[in-house]
Recover the amino acids of this structure.
């Protein structure tokens, strides 16, 4: 389930890649493609998104696990 949190970032990475790097239809307003290193930006963004998603998943799982023992 942690990977579902990555879905928006992964989809936007593909959209950005198509429109900025391949078609050059959009300006590189985030400067992710400076020096042609768009792939490094994409990998880093998706890793950070995965870590953030995992943190939120763990926090939510821990919260529900600790609340399960107190509910009667």
């Amino acid at each position: 389930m942690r990977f579902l949190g990555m879905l928006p970032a992964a989809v936007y990475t593909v959209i950005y890649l198509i429109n900025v790097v391949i078609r050059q239809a959009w300006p590189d307003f985030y400067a992710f493609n400076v020096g042609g290193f768009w792939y490094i930006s994409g990998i880093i963004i998706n890793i950070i998104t995965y870590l953030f998603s995992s943190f939120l998943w763990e926090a939510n799982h821990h919260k529900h696990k600790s609340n399960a023992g107190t509910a009667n």
Q: What stands out?
A: Residues 38-68 form the longest helix (31 residues).
